[in-house]
């Protein structure tokens, strides 16, 4: 599903964030990536999403080299095959919940009939006409999850999805993310500092300067 | 850290981060203050110089005696000279004399000649004494000499000793320039002659313009003025210097005030821009302010912070504006003159005078409007609850209170009420207030209107059909109307005012076009250089013209000036043949008229201009007494006519009535209708061959129309300039607002890019937002502008200039302005939208970068 081949990325001559990183992720897998701040977790997500280009190396999504695609092609791929969940939710304040969730469908030219069903799936049944300002943090993240999955993406990228939530809500959200990713048959990557979040993934990877490695049992970050 | 340091810290960091928005607001305030200040400086300079020049002609007299007609009989002079309370009586005859070869058909081709008695004038107005060559003192009382001011010498291109030719009626008069008037004011074009010489050479025997009086010591001026007025009777006016000043001020007051109001439009637009800058800044810094509140910043400190930031902006903008205004005024007065090309203050050359108090007042106005623009956003910021404000996502609710319909309803209701109120001191104060309230009310309604319009549009159009980009654009406009409306405030104000002015000017122009068709029905108009109160054509000259071949009809006109109120400029009297069966065939009458055939035979009818109704209270069917003829006579007001040529009043009467009352058979103008097939060139040639042909001013009606429109367009050139300035300020506001909003929406664009929205789609979305919003602004601006134009056409103009007009909408011009606005706003959005697709927006969604 996702192949990272010898990825190197730096922001200055002497500040390489990722060096010669390689990894392969299979379809349907749900992995957590952990690592210290500044080690390049978000950079890695940007590269996978085609929002940034590696200095060298190649990234393939289902065999397509997103890292060498033109912006429009990468955007098209992202639109169809990716779902994003952010730490700060990033739902549009001027759209209703239903409109926020329907965005990927509209972008892909798909009918929006399934929005209510998705709202029900994420526990927001009957609130499609509400605006984001009427929601709590946990509810906002449910909207973001619904938006990330509504168009049945092949790859879901979640960047610290529970960083702004209390532990109880975080737990609920993490379970929801896992359940929905699995229900949709998608591949998922969750970037997190939280062991609780990481524990919901099938596998936990540790990003260091030396690359991505399976985390040792009991490893304390 | 002490509060003052926090203040500096926050202001400097905010300004540094948003230098463009701050610069635009600063420029808007500066331009607004500059326009208002420069117009004030120019008007003051011209008015003061005109007033000073007029006063310099009156000398140091205590009182003046004038006739109710333009001239008075000199028989009064010896009576006053011998009066026991009068120390000195100084007779003056003042004439505006045509100069051959100078521009014809306008007010600037005449030389003001003042006839004085040098021996008496030496005591009362010594500035008017000419300086002859050494040993030639008698030139002051010679019959063929004239003394010219330096400006007059320069204008006429003559020097001491040269011959000067002038035109008096059909006669050419040659005089010798005997010397100069060294104490004349700079730019003042005047000439002085001996009073007897003026009376004789210009055919004004026995006539005086006024008699200036110096009272004996100990005489109470006010009491004597009343007593003398009673002694002299109703045929004369007795006035003081203050009356003269009021009269001069009245002449140009409406023009000056209307121009000042127009100049304030730019400042008014600037206020909206400051408001939008401050409001968007408050929205952008909502979380920052909430954090400060959490950390212990009091509400008062926050209020002071935001208002002080606005205050600094106001101080800098106002100081810049004062400097710019002074420079603009200096340049304008140098190249366009004190009346900006409108010829409202002829014969003066004013210089700009910097009055510190005026500067302080305009500085205070600039600062006040800036603070006014800052108050609402500041109050909104301090009202915000920190816990809620710390959360993102409710930015649009920040300004929700501003969209309360009640405020708008109150403004609009008051505006409606004010349109029904009469003028104050003959000024349309309530008219202007109604315009301001209409604008404020209309703009306040904008968020609700935008929300309603775009929500309806969004509901009607199915998401799938319009796609994600337009759904996003429409949803934002429908659900976040406050920010959008804030961005549009300045442009809405300037656009609606431009629409209003365009409608008013077109209505005026079309009405003048129709009016000229009625008042200039003949093919040719001939006049002799009028002198004083005399008609240039005596009976023999009239007969010579009638005897010429090629005319279908010949009408003669007699014009004269009447003083009906000493505090007001003179009223013009037209005596002409008026169609008795139906005066509408002769005069541009309004509906206020006695029906044809209902006029009693025994009365003398007069038709008065609309200004006479407003200023003198004349009513149709009423009998009035006018000083025409040896004794005042009674006339019946038979109708009201439109007069766009004289805002201080004019009266039309039958020429036969005039001639019977006065015995004066001379006329000033001749209207000639050519026979079919007769060429105007042939007729002009035959007129020129008359013995007095060379002295005739002959104009084709088409030339007179063209000249009228040239003057009209020149008069409104300043108006157009001020309107364009206001629109540019409005567009700058759109640029600043878009730029600010795009920065504030970085995370939104970042998220959209993540979920697959392409760069060009974001640009299309922003262009659509800008275009749709401006389209709505154009629609609302048109409605508002139309409403304002109704106030301008039906309230401000009649109350200021005392004339009415028909409403005409310049559809082509309005459409062109709307398209230009739409394109400008969409391009502005597109230009600033480039930032929205930069790499930085993608990173903006990352919280832990």
TrEMBL record, chain A:
PANTHER family: IMPORT ATP-BINDING PROTEIN, TRANSPORTER, PUTATIVE-RELATED. It comes from the Bacteria. Residues 2-221 form the ABC transporter domain. The keyword Lipid biosynthesis does not apply. The lineage of its organism: Bacteria, Pseudomonadati, Pseudomonadota, Betaproteobacteria, Nitrosomonadales. GO terms for biological process: response to antibiotic. This is Putative ABC transport system ATP-binding protein. GO terms for molecular function: ATP binding; ATP hydrolysis activity; transmembrane transporter activity. Pfam families: ABC_tran.
From TrEMBL, chain B:
One of its GO terms (cellular component) is plasma membrane protein complex. It holds the Pfam family FtsX. The chain crosses the membrane at residues 261-283, 312-337, 357-379, 400-418, 430-455, 484-505, 720-743, 763-796, 811-833. Residues 261-384, 724-838 form the ABC3 transporter permease C-terminal domain. It is a multi-pass membrane protein. Keywords: Cell membrane, Membrane, Transmembrane, Transmembrane helix. InterPro entries: ABC3_permease_C, Lipoprotein-release_system. Its main location: membrane. Belongs to the ABC-4 integral membrane protein family. LolC/E subfamily. This is Putative ABC transport system permease protein. It comes from Nitrosomonas ureae.
């Amino acid at each position: 599903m996702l192949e990272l081949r010898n990825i190197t990325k730096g922001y200055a001559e002497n500040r390489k964030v990722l060096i010669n990183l390689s990894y392969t992720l299979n379809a349907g897998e749900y992995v957590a990536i952990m690592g210290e701040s500044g080690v390049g977790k978000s950079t890695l997500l940007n590269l996978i999403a085609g929002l940034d280009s590696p200095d060298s190396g190649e990234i393939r999504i289902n065999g397509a080299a997103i890292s060498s695609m033109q912006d429009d092609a990468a955007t098209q791929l992202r639109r169809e095959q990716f779902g994003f969940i952010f730490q700060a939710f990033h739902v549009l304040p001027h759209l209703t919940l239903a409109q926020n969730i329907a965005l990927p469908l509209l972008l892909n030219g798909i009918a929006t009939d399934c929005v209510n069903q998705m709202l029900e799936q994420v526990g927001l049944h009957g609130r499609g006409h509400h605006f984001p300002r009427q929601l709590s943090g946990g509810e906002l993240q449910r909207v973001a999850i619904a938006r990330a999955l509504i168009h049945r993406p092949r790859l879901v990228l979640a960047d610290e999805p529970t960083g702004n939530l209390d532990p109880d809500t975080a737990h609920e959200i993490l379970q929801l993310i896992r359940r929905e990713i699995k229900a949709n048959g998608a591949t998922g990557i969750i970037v997190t500092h939280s062991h609780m979040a990481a524990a919901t993934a099938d596998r936990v990877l540790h990003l260091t300067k030396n690359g991505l490695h399976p985390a040792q049992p009991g490893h304390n970050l | 850290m002490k509060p003052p340091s926090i203040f500096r810290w926050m202001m400097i960091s905010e300004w540094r981060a948003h230098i463009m928005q701050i610069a635009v607001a600063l420029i808007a305030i500066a331009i607004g203050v500059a326009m208002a200040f420069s117009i004030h400086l120019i008007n003051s300079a011209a008015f003061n110089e005109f007033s000073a020049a007029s006063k310099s002609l009156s000398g140091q007299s205590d009182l003046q005696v004038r006739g109710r007609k333009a001239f008075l009989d000199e028989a009064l002079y010896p009576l006053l000279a011998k009066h026991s309370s009068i120390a000195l009586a100084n007779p003056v005859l003042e004439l505006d004399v045509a100069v051959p070869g100078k521009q014809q058909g306008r007010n600037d081709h005449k030389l003001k000649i003042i006839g004085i008695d040098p021996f008496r004038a030496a005591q009362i107005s010594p500035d008017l004494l000419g300086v002859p060559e050494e040993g030639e003192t008698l030139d002051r009382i010679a019959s063929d000499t004239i003394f010219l001011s330096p400006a007059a010498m320069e204008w006429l291109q003559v020097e001491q000793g040269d011959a000067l030719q002038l035109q008096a009626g059909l006669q050419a008069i040659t005089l010798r320039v005997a010397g100069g008037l060294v104490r004349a004011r700079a730019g003042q074009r005047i000439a002085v002659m001996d009073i007897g010489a003026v009376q004789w050479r210009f055919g004004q025997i026995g006539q005086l313009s006024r008699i200036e009086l110096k009272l004996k010591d100990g005489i109470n001026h006010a009491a004597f003025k009343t007593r003398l007025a009673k002694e002299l009777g109703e045929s004369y006016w007795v006035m003081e210097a203050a009356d003269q000043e009021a009269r001069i001020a009245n002449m140009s007051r409406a023009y000056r005030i209307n121009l000042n109001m127009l100049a304030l439009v730019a400042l008014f637009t600037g206020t909206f821009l400051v408001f939008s800058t401050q409001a968007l800044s408050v929205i952008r810094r909502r979380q920052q302010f909430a954090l400060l509140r959490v950390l212990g910043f009091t509400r008062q400190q926050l209020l002071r912070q935001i208002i002080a930031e606005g205050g600094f902006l106001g101080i800098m903008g106002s100081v810049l504006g004062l400097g710019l205004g002074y420079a603009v005024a200096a340049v304008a007065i140098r190249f366009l003159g004190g009346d900006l090309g409108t010829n409202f203050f002829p014969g003066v050359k004013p210089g700009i005078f910097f009055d510190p108090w005026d500067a302080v007042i305009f500085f205070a106005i600039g600062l006040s409007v800036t603070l006014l623009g800052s108050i609402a956003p500041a109050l909104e910021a301090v009202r915000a609850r920190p816990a809620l404000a710390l959360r993102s996502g409710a930015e649009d609710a920040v300004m929700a209170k501003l969209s309360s319909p009640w405020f708008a309803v109150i403004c609009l209701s008051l505006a409606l009420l004010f349109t029904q109120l009469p003028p104050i001191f003959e000024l349309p104060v309530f008219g202007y207030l109604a315009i301001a309230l209409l604008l404020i009310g209309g703009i306040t309604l904008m968020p609700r209107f935008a929300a309603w319009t775009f929500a309806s549009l969004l509901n009607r159009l199915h998401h799938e059909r319009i796609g994600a980009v337009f759904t996003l654009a429409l949803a934002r406009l429908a659900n976040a109307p406050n920010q959008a409306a804030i961005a549009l405030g300045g442009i809405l104000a300037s656009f609606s005012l431009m629409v209003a002015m365009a409608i008013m000017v077109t209505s005026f122009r079309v009405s003048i076009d129709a009016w000229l068709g009625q008042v200039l029905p003949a093919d040719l108009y001939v006049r002799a250089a009028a002198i004083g109160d005399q008609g240039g054509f005596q009976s023999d000259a009239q007969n010579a013209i009638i005897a010429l071949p090629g005319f279908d009809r010949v009408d003669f006109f007699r014009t004269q000036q009447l003083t009906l109120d000493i505090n007001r400029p003179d009223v013009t009297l037209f005596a002409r043949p008026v169609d008795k069966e139906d005066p509408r065939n002769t005069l541009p009458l309004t509906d206020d008229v006695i029906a044809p055939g209902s006029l009693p035979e025994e009365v003398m009818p007069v038709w008065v201009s609309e200004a006479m109704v407003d200023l003198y209270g004349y009513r149709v069917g009423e009998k009035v007494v006018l000083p025409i003829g040896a004794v005042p006579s009674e006339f019946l007001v038979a109708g009201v006519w439109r007069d766009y040529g004289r805002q201080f009043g004019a009266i039309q009467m039958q020429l036969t009535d005039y001639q019977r009352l006065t015995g004066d058979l001379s006329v000033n103008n001749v209207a000639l209708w050519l026979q079919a097939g007769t060429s105007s060139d042939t007729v002009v040639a035959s007129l020129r061959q008359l013995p007095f042909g060379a002295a005739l001013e002959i104009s084709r009606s088409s030339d007179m129309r063209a000249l009228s429109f040239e003057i009209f367009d020149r008069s409104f050139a300043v108006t157009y300039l001020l309107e364009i300035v206001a629109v540019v300020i409005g567009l700058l506001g759109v640029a600043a607002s878009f730029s600010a909003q795009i920065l504030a929406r970085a995370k939104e664009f970042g998220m959209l890019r993540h979920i697959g929205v392409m760069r060009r789609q974001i640009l299309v979305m922003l262009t659509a937002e800008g275009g749709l919003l401006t389209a709505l602004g154009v629609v609302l601006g048109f409605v508002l502008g139309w409403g304002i134009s109704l106030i301008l056409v039906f309230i401000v103009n009649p109350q200021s200039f005392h004339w009415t007009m028909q409403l005409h909408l310049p559809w082509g011009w309005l459409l062109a302005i709307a398209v230009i606005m739409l394109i400008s706003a969409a391009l502005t959005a597109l230009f600033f939208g480039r930032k929205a697709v930069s790499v930085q927006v993608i990173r903006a969604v990352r919280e832990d970068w």
